[in-house]
């Protein structure tokens, strides 16, 4: 099918028809004829196809003929082409530059209302409009849902909680405390200490244990501030005489290794979950508050290496204690207490005592696996140092004891000294040097109280030596406490 502009390609009949149109031309058709092709302004092209009932004229063998419509008078602004032997009429609307008062050619006419193509097009427009409205409604609903999901939690967490008198931000002696588990108690501290717990600032270090020690947001002066602390033994490294309830249930257990083996087979009573229940309940928040209320300022916190990981064949409950270790850190922050973190039990055991994880065995820097266990221990020292040296914890955990009572007589003095030097280099390689950069490094001279560590590592950055005093069976007396304090001052 070939289409040509009606104004340029015309048959003889077209010319006759066009002359007839000239006699009754309108301003619109005159304008169309005067403009040179292509037209300067084309507003719309409307194609309307209809099948004519007229047959081709006799003797006309052309397959494609271009004639003007004689059955319908041309309208203003329209040119009519009749193309093909089936007389398919294609109406092309050419709108040139028209005066401002030109009638709207897109407005539906009576013929349009009866035209199936126009009706279908009009239905599509309505359908498209309905779809747009549907999409707009769905989009508006989605926007409201998203906005509520963001605004409502913020409102509940900030506005409502601040209006609610459920929990105060801080308090001193006689104040009411709502513990983490929802229980309530009265904070008793006659020494001028106060607790701070702000949910909007969970790492707030403004709490102070008592009036004569600095709050957590102030550095501890190890030359002038005296440490008064308590050891939380039996919490994360279980010992029969400190946490006897589990051991009494399993008489064959003599340390945490054998206890873990025993409870792991007792699934009826919870298996290893019994040890985690011990972590949950052995020390509670009120206990930490009472430590501060008693005038103490530090907590010594022994942990086992299984808080980080275990190797195959090691029966300990791995990783479960870590969340509870961090919980103790946060409670100490709340009540202004500082923590000395102690790696109390290492792979292979450094002393063969029950508080070393496994009795009657010293495979740290000793025996077939001694060097491998020492390398594992160095890795755990690195992990713990990286954690407690973060800004969130550096003021809460300003001291790190890297071993507890190593048996230097079995391990060897030189081997132990070399390990301490390497551990120090590892720690300071992470923290850097100088006040505020990581914890004090604490080394233990062992249960033998060997004098070879006196003066060891003089000049190193923030290193301390820990010494354990064995108490007599008669217990602690005031005279003994004074003697121990004087001994510590001399050191």
UniProtKB/TrEMBL annotation:
Keywords: Cell wall biogenesis/degradation, Glycoprotein, Glycosidase, Hydrolase, Membrane, Transmembrane, Transmembrane helix. Residues 1-13 have a biased composition (Basic residues). GO terms for biological process: cell wall organization; glucan catabolic process. Residues 41-54, 64-73 have a biased composition (Polar residues). Residues 1-76, 95-117 are annotated as: Disordered. The chain crosses the membrane at residues 135-158. GO terms for cellular component: cell surface; extracellular region. It is an enzyme of class 3 (hydrolase). Its EC number is 3.2.1.58. Belongs to the glycosyl hydrolase 5 (cellulase A) family. PANTHER family: GLUCAN 1,3-BETA-GLUCOSIDASE 2, GLUCAN ENDO-1,6-BETA-GLUCOSIDASE B. This is glucan 1,3-beta-glucosidase. It comes from Candolleomyces aberdarensis.
């Amino acid at each position: 099918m070939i289409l040509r502009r009606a104004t340029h390609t015309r048959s003889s009949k077209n010319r006759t028809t066009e002359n007839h149109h000239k006699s009754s031309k309108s301003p619109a058709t005159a304008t169309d004829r005067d403009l040179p092709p292509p037209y300067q302004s084309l507003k719309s092209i409307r194609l309307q196809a209809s099948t004519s009932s007229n047959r081709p004229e006799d003797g006309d063998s052309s397959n494609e003929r271009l004639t003007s419509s004689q059955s319908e008078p041309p309208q203003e602004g329209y040119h009519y082409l009749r193309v093909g032997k089936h007389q398919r009429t294609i109406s092309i609307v050419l709108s040139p530059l028209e005066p401002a008062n030109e009638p709207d050619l897109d407005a539906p006419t009576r013929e349009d209302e009866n035209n199936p193509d126009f009706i279908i097009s009009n239905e599509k427009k309505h359908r498209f409009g309905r779809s747009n409205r549907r999409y707009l409604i769905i989009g508006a609903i989605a926007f409201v849902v998203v906005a509520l999901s963001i605004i409502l939690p913020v409102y509940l967490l900030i506005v409502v909680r601040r209006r609610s008198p459920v929990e105060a931000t801080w308090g001193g002696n006689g104040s009411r405390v709502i513990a983490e588990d929802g229980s309530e108690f009265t904070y008793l501290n006659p020494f001028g200490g106060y607790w701070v717990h702000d949910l909007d600032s969970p790492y707030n270090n403004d709490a102070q244990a008592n009036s004569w020690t600095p709050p957590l947001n102030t550095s501890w002066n190890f030359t002038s501030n005296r440490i008064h602390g308590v050891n939380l033994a039996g919490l994360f490294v279980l010992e029969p005489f400190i946490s006897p309830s589990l051991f009494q249930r399993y008489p064959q257990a003599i340390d945490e290794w054998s206890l873990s083996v025993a409870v792991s087979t007792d699934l009826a009573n919870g298996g290893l979950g019994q040890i985690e229940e011990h972590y949950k309940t052995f020390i509670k928040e009120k206990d930490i508050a009472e430590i501060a209320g008693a005038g103490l300022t530090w907590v010594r916190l022994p942990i086992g290496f299984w808080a980080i990981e275990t190797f195959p064949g090691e029966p300990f409950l791995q990783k479960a204690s870590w969340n509870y270790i961090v919980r103790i850190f946060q409670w100490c922050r709340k009540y202004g207490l500082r923590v000395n973190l102690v790696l109390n039990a290492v792979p292979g055991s450094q002393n063969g005592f029950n508080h070393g994880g496994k009795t009657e065995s010293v495979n740290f820097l000793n025996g077939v696996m001694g060097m491998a266990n020492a390398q594992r221990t160095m890795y755990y020292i690195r992990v713990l140092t990286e954690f407690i040296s973060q800004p969130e914890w550096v003021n809460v955990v300003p001291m790190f004891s890297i071993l507890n009572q190593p048996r230097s007589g079995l391990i060897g003095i030189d081997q132990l000294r070399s390990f301490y030097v390497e551990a120090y280099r590892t720690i300071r390689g992470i923290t850097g040097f100088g006040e505020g950069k990581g914890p004090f490094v604490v080394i233990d001279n062992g249960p033998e109280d060997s004098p070879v560590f006196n003066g060891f590592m003089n000049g190193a950055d923030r290193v301390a030596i820990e010494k354990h005093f064995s108490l007599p069976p008669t217990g602690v007396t005031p005279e003994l406490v004074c003697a121990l304090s004087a001994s510590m001052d001399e050191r």
